[in-house]
Amino acid sequence: MTQQTSKKILNIAVIAGDGIGKEVTPEAQAVLDKAAQGDVSFNYTDYDLGAERYLRDGTLLTDEDLASIGEKDAILLGAVGDPRVTSGILERGLLIKLRFAFDQGVNLRPSKLYPGVSSPLKNPGDIDFAVVREGTEGLYSGMGGIIRRGTDQAIATEISMNTEFGVERAVRYAFELARKRDGKKNVTMVNKTNVLVHAGALWLDVMEKVAKDYPDVTWDYLHADACTIFMATNPSRFDVIVTDNLFGDVLTDLAGAVVGGIGYSASANINVANEHPSMFEPIHGSAPDIAGKSIANPTAAIVSVAMLLEHFGYDAAANRIHRAVEADIAENASKKRSTHQIGQDILNRL
Ligand code: NAI
Ligand code: MG
Predict the structure, then answer these.
(1) Which of 200, 191, 183, 170 has the alpha carbon at shortest distance from 108?
(2) Cα–Cα distance between 188 and 239 in angstroms, integer?
(3) Which of 45, 220, 248, 273 has its CA 20 to 30 A from that of 73?
(4) Which residue among 92, 269, 286 has the greatest number of ligand 1 atoms within 8 angstroms of its CB, and so is best to mutate?
(5) Residue nearest to atom 36 of ligand 1 (CA)
(6) pTM over the 0.70 mark
(7) CB 199 within 8 A of CB 246
(8) Pick from 212, 189, 220: which is nearest to 202 by CA?
(9) CB-ligand 1 contact for 343 (6 Å cutoff)
(10) What is the pLDDT of residues 263-284, one digit of tens each?
């Protein structure tokens, strides 16, 4: 699952993007450099991508950009988005294009309630689980179309594409993760097998097949709607959740909310075969409402570089970041600090 590397220098494509993406990313890079000192170092290449470039010259992600980024070992993404750009243009033309071009079949989102952070749940319990969301298929495959648009006979289809290969890739990743994590060693598959009888059957077949290779990991199944109930009433029951692209998108936002908001959550888009770069990012967006004020919290971006280190097998360095973030939150979560101050406070604990 982790991509062990013997390289002493990793080449990183940095897409700081728009708004607070530009503010939090340098803080994350500084933490990454210091945490990894002695283990590995990083050679950064900045890419000017996002809403600002699109508004300036109308380009999103050119073939040259893709070819250049494709040569790097990993991608660090801040956030993209701007109220002046129609919703969907950057998501499809940039974010989803990167995920598909680099075959990032797993979207990994850990959710942990840090001591010191308040959850909107009255009795949150000990929340520490990870969602493995399939990243390139399902209803996000782009298959389908709309005809007779603008008439009263319009027809639209959006096809959920599920392949044995893509599902097995995500499911195996989930079992490996459950085995490695210091948790309940359980995988919960989430779907709607009672309604999505074709895709659901394929997912269940793959679960049963893969589970045989992991006798040390248990598994169970929940319908997506029931899963939302448990996530709000008993989130500590989960260890690793594996699900399709759309359910995963929705569930991870709920998961982010129950652990106290998006300020601390990070995600990884992983090319499991290690043939293309994986991408690491905070889950929040460009936050136009606070951009330019230097008050954005860089913690989620910092957690995303810990995920980058874990991806390459540098668990000790990643853990140094996790410990520093936990200590900083426990001590300072309620204090008003600038973006750079939070970055420095975490850096100084390494
Ligand atoms: P958002 O995550 O940018 O902001 C939601 C709310 O959370 C805002 O009030 C914001 O100030 C606050 N917030 C977010 N991150 C924060 C941080 N690090 N520290 C303190 N407060 C923070 O989501 P929103 O407003 O829906 O989207 C804004 C733009 O970002 C849109 O253009 C959207 O498409 C884009 N977006 C991009 C993503 C990406 O690049 N992966 C992900 C989500 C949204
Ligand atoms: Mg989402």
Answers:
(1) 170
(2) 8
(3) 248
(4) 286
(5) 285
(6) yes
(7) no
(8) 189
(9) no
(10) 789 999 999 999 999 999 998 9
